[in-house]
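From the shared-data thread, chain only:
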Amino acid sequence: MRTARAGSSALLMCAIALTAGCASTPAAGPTSLDPAPPSGEVVAQGTVLDDGSGAELCLGAVAESAPPQCDGIPVKDWDWSSLSDATTMSGSTWGTYAVQGRYDGSALTVTAPAVPLALYDPMPIPDPTGGVPGTADDATLRDVEQRVHDTLGDTVLASGAYDGRLWVTVVWDDGTLQDAADAEFGADVVVVQSAMREVG
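Structure, as tokens:
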């Protein structure tokens, strides 16, 4: 399993092109092909960390230190006073939660009380493959994984080859990144999953 930190910036230029050649294109901001922010509310599970400069939701790797270290998405309207399970140490406060809110592509604005992950009962995520193994070999998947990371950067939270496919978790995808991966690498080679899930 390969992981990458979750950055708070918008998707990189050429994020959905997923080509090695695109990596040399000068960054000029997001393109019109970037996944649009969700129109409704989303829920995401992760570590909320506030080092005194504002709360962030870390969806990717978290360093197991005290306090923990991670890069996350800024969380607006966060209220620690309503939570009894948070830990405070060395000027930082943190805990693990399911957070619901509106995501504008760079920050998440809370719209409902956070639920500690120990108490959260998420809806099951359907297997988009139907449990049928893929056919890509390991060498192909290693190459595809490198190209995906080179292009998407911190948008990728985690990736790993499993059962003939490359599974990639990103902060948010409305299907744009999946369509681009299919177009670039062929259908059924990459499975893109969004850490943020639409509510309802």
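DSSP finds two helices and twelve strands in the chain.
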